[in-house]
């Protein structure tokens, strides 16, 4: 499952849809915090590998992506620290509706993310990059599902990236948010390192195939994968929020 998670995540995010349920099914008696943190360890390798491959083929405006990466790391630390102080239930209930908005907006804007036309590196764009990284980073550290989809949509909608460039930028920010969460959870001793590293190897191999598909077939392919993954995430998050006690 880690292999398939790496493949899917390299294209358009959403690898957690595969990897997290597999962990919970395989280790029903292990605490959720340990399984979720182990998932982060496995995912960070594949995400970094996909980012490395994307960067060989696309050029990113680092004046925007760089601040988003730093802010994502800080936001994820804050989110992971806030988990014990605030309930995640309201986010769990709202997630299907937020994702539905993303799906419908992208579906009815067929030209969205088709062309790569970044809006330039200005102070305003840098501030937007910081806000995107901080908000989504906090969300990833605090709750997590759909982080890659939110980042992908954000880079396309607010910065004029096409889906291929947005996917590359998403991977870089996601590496930072995962690392921050790992550091926070490792300090609490809640990671199965042996399992995490074993899954990381499979995740990296999967990301090799996924990134190759995305680079070969381009933005149109990534857009279709994004719509499919978000649709599945809507169904899964709605089921978890409203039909499972």
Task: Write a short abstract of this structure.
The chain is mainly alpha-helical and 245 residues long.
- Computed over alpha carbons, the radius of gyration is 17 Å
- Helix content bin: over 70%
Number of strands: 0
Instruction: List segments where confidence is low: pLDDT < 50 over at least 5 consecutive residues.
Output: none
Profile the largest sheet: none
Tally of contiguous helical segments: 9
Strand content: under 5%
Number of domains: 1
Helix-strand pattern: HHHHHHHHH
Structural class: mainly alpha
Task: Give the N-to-C terminal Cα separation.
Answer: 26 Å
Shape: globular
Could you tell me the mean pLDDT? 86
Keywords:
245 residues, mainly alpha, 79% helix
Describe the model.
- The protein has 245 residues and is mainly α.
- The chain has one domain.
- Helices cover 79% and strands 0% of the residues.
- The protein is built from nine helices and no strands.
- Helix 6 packs antiparallel against helix 7.
- It is globular, with a radius of gyration of 17 Å.
- The mean pLDDT is 86.
Topology (SSEs and partners):
Blueprint: H1 2-12, H2 16-26, H3 32-55, H4 62-82, H5 89-107, H6 123-142, H7 147-159, H8 163-186, H9 193-242
Helix pairs in contact: 1-2, 1-3, 1-9, 2-3, 3-8, 3-9, 4-6, 4-8, 5-9, 6-7, 6-8, 7-8, 8-9
């Amino acid at each position: 499952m880690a292999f398939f998670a790496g493949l899917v995540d390299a294209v358009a995010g959403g690898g957690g849809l595969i990897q997290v349920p597999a962990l919970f099914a395989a280790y029903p008696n292990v605490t959720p915090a340990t399984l979720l943190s182990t998932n982060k360890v496995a995912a960070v390798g594949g995400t970094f590998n996909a980012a490395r491959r994307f960067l060989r083929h696309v050029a990113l405006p680092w004046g925007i992506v760089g601040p988003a990466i730093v802010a994502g790391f800080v936001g994820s630390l804050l989110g992971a620290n806030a988990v014990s102080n605030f309930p995640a239930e309201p986010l769990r209930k709202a997630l299907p509706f937020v994702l539905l908005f993303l799906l419908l907006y992208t579906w009815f804007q067929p030209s969205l993310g088709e062309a790569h036309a970044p809006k330039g590196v200005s102070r305003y764009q840098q501030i937007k990059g910081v806000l995107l990284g901080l908000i989504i980073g906090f969300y990833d550290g605090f709750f997590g599902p759909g982080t890659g989809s939110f980042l992908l949509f954000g880079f396309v909608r607010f910065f004029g990236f096409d889906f291929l460039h947005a996917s590359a930028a998403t991977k870089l920010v996601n590496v930072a948010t995962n690392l921050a969460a790992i550091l926070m959870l490792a300090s609490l001793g809640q990671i199965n390192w042996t399992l995490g590293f074993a899954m990381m190897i499979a995740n990296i191999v999967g990301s090799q195939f996924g990134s190759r598909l995305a680079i070969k077939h381009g933005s149109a392919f990534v857009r279709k994968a994004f719509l499919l993954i978000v649709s599945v995430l809507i169904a899964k998050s709605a089921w978890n929020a409203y039909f499972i006690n």
